[in-house]
Amino acid sequence: MDLRRGVWIVVGVLVLSLSLSSAGDIVHHDNIAPKRPGCENNFVLVKVPTWVNGVEDSEYVGVGARFGPTLESKEKHATNTRVVLADPPDCCSTPNNKLSQEVILVHRGNCSFTRKANIAEAANASAILIINNRTELFKMVCEDDEPDVEIHIPAVMLPQDVGAILENDLMNKSKVSVQLYSPLRPVVDIAEVFLWLMAVGTIIFASYWSAWSAREAAIEHDKLLKDASDDSLHMEVDRSNALVEISTTAAILFVVIASCFLVMFYKLMSFWFVEILVVLFCIGGIEGLQTCLVTLLSCFRRFKHAGESYVKVPFFGAVSYLTLAVAPFCIAFAVVWAVYRRVSFAWIGQDILGIALIITVLQIVRVPNLKVGTILLSCAFLYDIFWVFVSKWWFHESVMIVVARGDKSGEDGIPMLLKIPRLFDPWGGYSIIGFGDIIIPGLVVAFSLRYDWLANKKLRAGYFVWAMTAYGLGLLITYVALNLMDGHGQPALLYIVPFTLGTLLTLAQMRGDLKVLWTRGEPERPCPHVHLQPSQ
After folding, report:
1. Which residues belong to the active site?
2. Which residues of 411-449 are buried (b: 16+ CB within 10 A; e: fewer)?
């Protein structure tokens, strides 16, 4: 049991280190690049579909410049325009070829971006495509010493490899044409609705499981006190050891430890480091899926005996026969997901493992009272804001967002996320939510239901339904903010914590239960009368 608890503590810190909701940026805000009249556009991604000799070819993605007009947002309004190569290629002097509203393809370097655009516009080009000297995209800005800029043609940068493809087609005398447009995200994507349902449903299921376990333990505890036998008391202690109860110190240390893990993710982010995270996620996912399956199957009479019969296994201690039976399936499921995690539908397996892991963590880890829950959520609130927003001042980029996307790793993000593909988004991608955004507030929500059940409170008179509603509203506001910020990653706990914690504290104060919730965390139960037999 100690080994399993150790594994859960390590995996728990890993999954709680990431707390973010995101849909992938299409607008890239930059407060460092200079802004002035004529040079104040947001950096937007641009779709560049191509046609070669009249046949539709590949679609590429570029980035719009700080200067120039705003691009069309709808494909049907974007003009299909022929592309020509600049001569000279850098377009730092008047082109030798005559232009008639074509799109001119130029190389980066030897002069400023605005000079290239001005020369292309003067030569009668309708737009300018600038090939970067690297495979990634680069933000095109105005120079500090430039006067007010007046450019009336769109400027888009393309990666080096894309530019090489277009240049090769043009060198081979092929007729190449493009469209340039930057579609807007839908206000709401169905992926966000399903992700909201997944997060809320996971907490509800885990809370009821936790409350049921707490009530059964309380009933059994009362029976053991009546029996007052040493064997019974030892059994009670063994069962309590299976739980990890968060202390005030642990809640505060969470910020420090999780921050250290997050910085480690950021600094060591690479292909092999993500592979290590995948292995750890699979270990946690196997344990979580196994725990959930064993619990569910034990509800059926056919499997109940197997779930209550144990065999001793080295390093793991007493393990039920039912656990041994489902373990191969859980291991196979996780291994298959790990091998095929790059296929388009692998998100389903990741979400199944992730939800099982979250539910099991919420079952094993518990908040003893509202005081610890308040400290934990408050620390997580500050942690989330710091690593999403404030970290930009030290690292020049959001550490949380970089880690969530898996930048510099060659992978499609790290696995400690629930994600769903954005079905109706022209940019595609995934809507994601970090495990921490579910587990951390989920610990407090589960605590509220345990209290309601132990206090025999009805649903409306209790705290769970209000805490759950507050969490749902906080997460909903997160997605509203996400769409208002054009998909820019948002710290979900920034919205969830005030809703959830504020609702519980206010309601407890109004009902006069704050003192009990804050200190004891559970209602006082009448102590059963214990009959002690005189020693012989």
Report:
1. 384, 437
2. bbbbbbbbbbebeebbbebbbbbbbbbbbbbbbbbbbbb
